[in-house]
User: Fold this.
Amino acid sequence: MSEIAKRRPKYLNLFEIKLPLPGWVSILHRVSGAGLFVMLPGLIWLLGLSLGSPENFETFKAVVGHPLVKLVLLGLMWAYLHHFCMGIRILLLDMHIGIEKAQARASAIAVLVVSLALTAILGVKLW
Amino acid sequence: MVNRVVVGAHYGLKDWLAQRITAGVMVVYTLLMAVLVPLSGGGYEGWHALMGHQFVRFISFIFILSLCYHAWVGIRDIWMDYINPTALRLALHVLTLLALVGYAGWAIQILWRL
Assistant:
C-alpha cells in the first residue's frame, strides 16, 4: 500500500506511451470536434454569403474557389465526416454492439478508412 | 449511522444523454440534406429555394440548436479536462457559451431572412 502510494500520482509521458488505434481514433474525435468549433464562425459566414443576394453568391463562389480555402474546407470536411463516423461508432458501443476487443479495433479502422474515403470522394466531386 | 449514497449532481447523465440525442438529430439532418442538396439542382436559385423552404428551415433550425448544444457539452468537456485554474476555466466556459448562443442566433437569422 505505502509502496503504491509513494508512486502516485502517476503521469503518463505522452511521447513514450504507445496509443492503440482505437485510442487514436478517439483523440481524433476530440480534435475534429474542436476544429469544427473553432471554424464555426467561418462556416456560418459562408452560409450567409451563399444565401444572400446573387452578388453575395458570386463572392461565396470566389471565396470557396481559392486554393487555400479549399484546403481548409477539405480539412473541415474530413473533420465532420470523422466526427460523424466516430459518433455512430460511439452510439453503437453505447448499445453494447461491437464491444469485444477485436470488433472494437475493426470498427476503429472502419471509422478511419470510411471517413478518409468519403473525404476523398467528396473532395474530388466538389473540385 | 447515516446511510448515504454519494450520487453527484446528475448533470453528467443529462449531458451524456443530450450529447447522444443531439448527435442523432444531426445524423438524420446530414443524411436528409445529402439527398436534398443534390436534388435542388445547384446554383443560386436551387440553393436559395431549398433553404427557404419552410420544412427545410424547420429542420435546419433544430439542427442549429442541436449543433450548438452538442458543441457546448463537447467543448466544455475539453476545458474541464485540460484547463486547471478555476478562474480561467470559468472564463472559457462563459466565452464558449456566449459564442455558441451568438452563432445560433446568427445562423438562424440567415435562414429567417430567406
About this structure: Chain A has a mean pLDDT of 92. The two ends of chain A are 62 Å apart (CA to CA). The first helix of chain A runs from residue 2 to 6.
